[in-house]
Amino acid sequence: MNKNKNILVVDDEVKIVQVIKSYLENSGYTVYEAYTAKQALEKFQEVNPSLIVLDLMLPDMAGEDICRKLREKSRVPIIMLTAKVDEEDILRGLNIGADDYVTKPFSPRQLVARIDAVLRRSADSAAPLSDILSFNNGDIVINTQKYEVKRKGKAINLTPKEYKLLVTMAKHPDKVFTREELIYSVLGEDYDGYDRTIDTHIKNIRQKIEPDPRAPRYILTVHGIGYRFGGE
C-alpha cells in the first residue's frame, strides 16, 4: 500500500508520542503530534490526516468527546489508545465511531500493523461527508447544505432537533447509538432532562419519513441499547 500518508498522534505523554512517531516514520508515514485536545482539533484542520491515533485521557477534553466532534464532519479513521481495559469502555469507544482500540501497554509494531490494516479498509474514509445523503435509491434524500429532507421528492417538515437527530444517525448508517449519545449530539452535554425525550423525537421522525411507522425501515430500534439508521 502507499505509505505517503499523514498520521496524527494525540497523547499527553511525550515519550509515548515519540515512540509511536519513530516506528511510524520507519514504516514510511509522516507523523504529526498533538498533546492536548485543542492541538488535536487544530492539527486535524491543518494537515487533514489519513488516520488519527487518539489517547482517551487528555488533560483538556476526553478522547471520546474529540471523537464525537470529528465524526460530525469526517470519516477519518480513528484508533483509540488508552489504559482503560473495561469492555464497556471499549464498546463505548467503538460505538461513537472509533475504528479500532489499543490498550496500554502496547507493542508499537502491533500498532503500526493495525494502522496498516485500518487504512487498507478505509482508503477513502478521510474525505469530508457529502452534502447529499441519499438512501434506498433516492427514497430519502438529505441535503445537509440546505437543511432539507425529501421523501420520494417531497419535502419533509422536521423540527430542528428532529433534523439534527436524523442527520446524526444518517451520517453513520448501521452504527448503533445509545440514547445518551443522541442526547449529547442533539440536545447538548448540559441537558439534564429525561432521556426518553429521544424516544419522542424518534416517534415523530418515523411518522414523517417512514412508509409504515409501525414497521420502520430507516430509524431502527436496537433493544436494550438505542437506535440505528437502516437506510442503504
TrEMBL record:
UniProt GO BP: regulation of DNA-templated transcription
Superkingdom as given in the UniProt entry: Bacteria
Protein source organism: Clostridium thermosuccinogenes
Protein name: Stage 0 sporulation protein A homolog
Modified residues (4-aspartylphosphate): D55
Entry's Gene Ontology molecular function annotations: phosphorelay response regulator activity; transcription cis-regulatory region binding
DNA-binding region: 130-231
KW Transmembrane helix (keyword) present: no
Domain (Response regulatory) ranges: 6-119
InterPro entries according to UniProt: CheY-like_superfamily, OmpR/PhoB-type_DNA-bd, Sig_transdc_resp-reg_C-effctor, Sig_transdc_resp-reg_receiver, WalR-like, WH-like_DNA-bd_sf
Alphabetic keyword roster: DNA-binding, Phosphoprotein, Transcription, Transcription regulation, Two-component regulatory system
Residue ranges of every copy of the OmpR/PhoB-type domain listed in the record: 130-231
Pfam families registered for this protein in UniProt: Response_reg, Trans_reg_C
Transmembrane segments: none
CC per GO annotation: cytosol; protein-DNA complex
Its biological purpose: May play the central regulatory role in sporulation. It may be an element of the effector pathway responsible for the activation of sporulation genes in response to nutritional stress. Spo0A may act in concert with spo0H (a sigma factor) to control the expression of some genes that are critical to the sporulation process.
